[in-house]
Amino acid sequence: MATPTTPNLGLNKVDRSSPTTTYVNLKTLIDDNMDTLDAAVATKAPKISPTFTGTPTAPTAAPGTNTTQLATAAFVQAAIAALVNSSPAALDTLRELAIALGDDPNFATTMTNALALKAPINNPIFTGSGATLPADPTAAMHATTKQYVDGKVASIDMSTLAPKASPAFTGNPTAPTPSVDDNDTSIATTAFVIGQASTSTPAMDSVASVGTSKRYARADHVHPTDTSLAPVASPTFTGTVTLPGDPTSALHAATKQYVDTVGTTVSSKVSKNGDTMTGNLITSNSSGTIAASTTVAGSLEVRGNGGSGDAAFMSFHRPGAFGAQFGLDTDNKWKVGGWSTGAAAYELWHDNRLRVNSSGKYLEWNDGGTWYPVGGTAIGASNTVQHSQATEITTSGNTNYTLAYKFVPKGTGDLKITADLYTSDTTASYPAYIYVQVGQATDTIDLSNIEVGGMNGKVLVDWTSPIGAVITVPVGSISALNVPGMIKSTPAAYGTVSGILHVHSKEPVYLFLWSQATGKVKNINIQYDILG
Fold this sequence. Notes:
Layout: H1 26-42, H2 73-84, H3 94-100, H4 107-116, H5 146-154, H6 190-195, H7 256-267, E1 312-318, E2 322-328, E3 334-337, E4 345-347, E5 354-356, E6 363-367, E7 370-373, E8 378-389, E9 393-396, E10 400-407, E11 412-423, E12 432-437, E13 470-472, E14 480-488, E15 495-503, E16 509-515, E17 518-530
Parallel strand pairs: 8-11
Antiparallel strand pairs: 1-2, 2-3, 3-4, 5-6, 6-7, 8-17, 9-17, 10-13, 10-16, 11-15, 11-17, 12-14, 12-16
């Protein structure tokens, strides 16, 4: 029986389907087939980079295929034929095309740049020094040269021409006459201007209108007389005259509305001939001082109605209660009076009639150039004894004030108090003092001339209190002032002390003795002169 083989390579194989197949030697089988296999493989090409011999064939791809399919000779020839596309024999190869393009790999860029240096046939625009023509033009449509144009221009007399901008013509220039009522930028001839003169008679009594006619009125035209209108000079109106608005200038005609408003304003004013004013009146004084003024300079002047023979005064009135006059009387003195005060005028005193004495202690009044103390008699401190008491008065205790002396001064002014004063204190810690009472119903002591003792309250004595009366009050609760200079601090001996007081009225003066130890006083003298 024949040995079975493979269909392609003819290799021996075991027919396992035959019932008669017996076991064979595998090595022998393989060895028998290796030579056959080797010879068969030698006739094959590898899949990777195969090298064919003879005439290999393959299926021809369809035209335009662009894949990894093999390109047969037929596919290539068809592609070349499509590329050449019946080109002439001189341009049917790539070399021939390269030669035709000048072997320029940037042929497209080169051509674009070259074309950029060319001018189009239609409406060319040249640069540089312009185009150069072969000769001057000989036909109407030829391009012309500079020399041709220069020659023509040189032959023209420019002085006979007018510029387009603001030309100044001479002689008798003419132009086409525009049609009647033409309204554009055409030149207006004299014929056009005369033709625009109106031939209509001027209208009158018509409704005002801007108008639309292009005709003008002649200089000698005359309007008909309109009796319904008033002349500009001295017009006489009838009926009701209506103005466009209130006047805004001095010579404008005034409306009723304006006059009524002014009338309302006038009714709120004060009449120069006398009127009653309500509310507050505020005036502003002129600059300068009263003393420096030599004529009327104030913001308000009150004058006598009849001249120098009448007083200049103002009235002050509380309706239903009281009224009086105030001003300069005919004797040129400031006075108040009259009306509710009766037929009397009371002089007002000022620093030319009443003043503080140069000492600053009391008031004086002027009588014909001579100054007299106010309140009667004036006194002045001196060595003349007017009041005195020799009796010794004793006091002791921190809260005891002993009435040492009392007197009524004979006038107003300065007085001197002298006395012998004693203290029992041997340490000089508790001196004796002479105090004057303060806080009476009418203070009689000028506080500016005495020292404050630092105590408050009130010493309760009057003229009925006897000399030697002791007033006991809590410490720090009395209103008494130490007379300057009237203090005795040298212990266990009498000493003479003195002080100055100023009194401004004939009221009683009360002197007190005080000492925290034992104090004594005697030989009290009140000294002053009567000045007048």
